[in-house]
Write a structure and sequence with these properties.
The chain is built from eight helices and five strands; from the N terminus they run ββααβααββαααα. With about 210 residues, it is an alpha/beta fold. A five-stranded mixed beta sheet has the order 3-2-1-4-5. It is globular, with a radius of gyration of 17 Å.
Length: about 210
């Protein structure tokens, strides 16, 4: 379970960032950013925050709502950023993920003294000191909160995209290469939101 041990290793304001949507074939990559200004937040958060993939959709949505409430109270700073499918094709998914994280920090309107980044790679030219944390969303409250923000926001985006492009199952598969998605590609072709640099989409474009 996450805690504040990593945050407490550093002086000053420590933010966590994480992204959702590196693997899907379609849509943007979305990043969340969270910085706890106070620790006496709604206990529901500290009891339930975890790697977003380990939580049910309902639990993630509840946590997302509480994070927004705590942000309105001024207890947490949160932000969400994204990089489009075209940007992913232009600069690759890793750099697009870092770009989305940078935009999430900007959206949170903070200047942290340290940024904890989920994963094993530290972004270059980030503008802030960073520390990569493998499986960070299961270790740090800040990264776990960021992972919830990114995942819930991106899932909602994909549900909206499913209305725009029905027949691919985006509302259920979030853009991953499921059977329904492949059937949609065979039937309706590649949408403007597909990542053309991804091997399966390149195949369909042939």
């Amino acid at each position: 379970m996450p805690d504040f041990v990593l945050e407490d290793e550093f002086n000053g304001m420590v933010a966590g960032v994480d992204e959702a949507g590196r693997g899907p074939w379609v849509g943007p990559v979305v990043a969340g950013c969270a910085l706890f200004l106070r620790r006496d937040v709604n206990p529901f958060l500290l009891e339930n925050l975890n790697d977003s993939k380990k939580l049910s959709k309902k639990k993630r949505e509840q946590l997302f709502a509480v994070l927004q409430e705590e942000a309105e109270r001024g207890y947490i700073k949160i932000g969400i950023g994204q990089a489009s499918a075209q940007e992913i094709d232009d600069i690759n998914i890793l750099n697009a993920s870092f770009l989305a994280m940078k935009r999430a920090l900007e959206a949170a309107q903070i200047k942290p003294d340290m940024v904890l980044v989920d994963g094993n790679r530290e972004p270059k030219n980030f503008g802030y000191p960073t520390k990569a944390v493998i499986k960070g969303d299961a270790k740090s409250y800040s990264i776990a909160a960021a992972s919830i923000l990114a995942k819930v926001y991106r899932d909602k985006l994909m549900e909206e995209m499913a209305l725009q492009y029905p027949g691919y199952g985006f509302e259920k598969n979030a853009g991953y290469g499921t059977k329904a998605h492949i059937e949609g590609l065979k039937k309706f072709g590649v949408t403007p939101e597909h990542r053309r640099s991804y091997a399966p989409i390149k195949e369909f474009l042939k």
